Fold:
Amino acid sequence: MTRYLSKSRFKVAYECPAKLYFNEQPKIYGNKNRDNEFLKALAQGGFQVGALAKIYHPDGIDLEEFKTEEAIAKTNELLQRESVTIFEAAIQTGPFLVRVDILQKQGEVVSLIEVKSSSIHAKTHTNFFKKRDPGIDRDWEPYLVDVAYQVWVTRQAHPNWQVQPYLMLADKSEVATVEGLHQFFRLQQSEGFGAKVAVKEGLTLESVGKPLLAKIDVLKEVEHLIGKESFPTGEKLPEFAKYLADCHTKGAPAVAKVSSLCKGCEFRIGEDIKSEGLKSGFEECWTREKKLRPEDLAKPLIFEIWNCRKTDDLLASNKIFFDQVAEDDLKPKTKSKKDKKLQPYQRQWIQIQKQLKGDTTPFVDRDGLSELFGSITYPIHCIDFETTMVAIPFHKGRRPYEQLAFQFSHHVLNKDGTIAHVDQYIDTRAGAFPNFDFVRRLQKSLSTDCGTIFRYATHENTVLRQIREQLLASSEADQKNLISFIDEITQPRGGEDGDPGKRNMIDLREVVLQHFYHPLMNGSNSIKKVIPAVLEESKLLKEKYSDAVYGMSKPIKSLNFDVMTWIEIGSGGKVVDPYKKLPPVFKDIPQQWFSDEAPLFLDDSIDDGGAAMTAWSRMQFTEMSTIERQAIEAALLKYCELDTLSMVWLLEYWADTISE
Structure:
């Protein structure tokens, strides 16, 4: 079988040439992100965008189901026509192959249209170049490299053609003119862990309303990319492609330089994946390029330094490990004016020193936390939102990728130490626009007193400010009241006028950054890393939550857990991560109770925001039984409740620490 260099393989190799080889050896090299792109597309409606693009070209001939060699032959046959539109056209020359999303041929003028679920404001768009230099905008470069490769291969195969490339993207400057548009494109399970779109029978160009996808000319960007000499090997695209094709044909690894980008390498796997007998591609690259021994990579790498902007500078100085870094390597050129708060470089240095000294104790700025608690008004409110942004709007009048807030959780911590999960909201109705009811319920939930409100990170503030914009454009009877509530508990984002509200939410993540660090967090400030460290450290929390005190009829009231003992000591003597204690979505549900399509979460829990977004989106885009919907909703409620309980734990721990 011919080993073609497809556009997906080329795109992977552009990120890092070594990944091309690792990706082709799934039984040898572990990949911790293998399903991430699929899940992202599922959650945001990427599959449906491709289907909608085909509706906009009703004369198109679809070759999606054709196998490679069949598709090549059929494409060549169809291209004999003077005019033709082909979906998934297979253009091949030598070892190079591309499947074009939409190919339109008019004589020797050929349009290559790459469909992406990303969005743009087409009415104000000019180009995808950076503002201050001739390079391509970093966020768009991967997409445009993909298109550039397609153009180059097509020109090699058909040198007489005039090839015009386009990106087709969701247009945020347009609004849906059809109600329930997304319901025309339902997801169904396909072979393995995948999905396919079932388009409503009889769907026509007229029935989908005004176009929501814009076709953007990218010829200038593509010509720039084809001619630039900064591909990973330092060559232009043609030479780089030929080098990759040669490596791929021979089944040999391509050479890649190590850099700060290696930090996020999907082939940098942990012991859990290695235990399955899989190798780390990351370790192979680093032992080869930096002449390291495998045991060296067990030492802390500079990648682990939190928020380090100088990683490439350190690597250029051959500083790879914590013990090679000096404090002066981290210090900024100018001193911050926020002298009282922990500065980023100071936090980085604390992390390094604790790691090198084997110091497992936390850094706690007791004065700073005491000042915080001295400013708090009880009762304390902890809130968390679950949201999504989908490409194809659910409702007439809505734009692509508008914010949808479908769930919140609300815990209260009283001055006497009593705790309760007092409220929650979730809307899982297919096609519902929940935002305004979401805010009404949140207002009711938070308006019983004037207590301090906490969030974790900026998400909740961002979501409410986006809903504020939606309210301004609405005709809701209580529009002014809801906007006033949002203004009271939020702060304007960049570019917005105004001052923080008098009850502006406090960001617990910022408190962590400025006043707290624990070695078990490993440089991360995600609440999913902070909480296991806090539970491991806190004697108070261990004693309190080792008992079954949490539940619907327990001293600490829950709205979703009958009873829960949160503290459990694992086999290694460490506290089990509470998020790992969340049950699988479909636990104890017989298989025969499901719909005909197998569920995507049969053996999994909803234990992070991405899984929550994907689960909710699946309820919008797929047919499922009532029992499946109920199981997913119950899992979403438990996950979101744990997020706000985690915030309570953090506050309990700090209050106990500063009182000692």
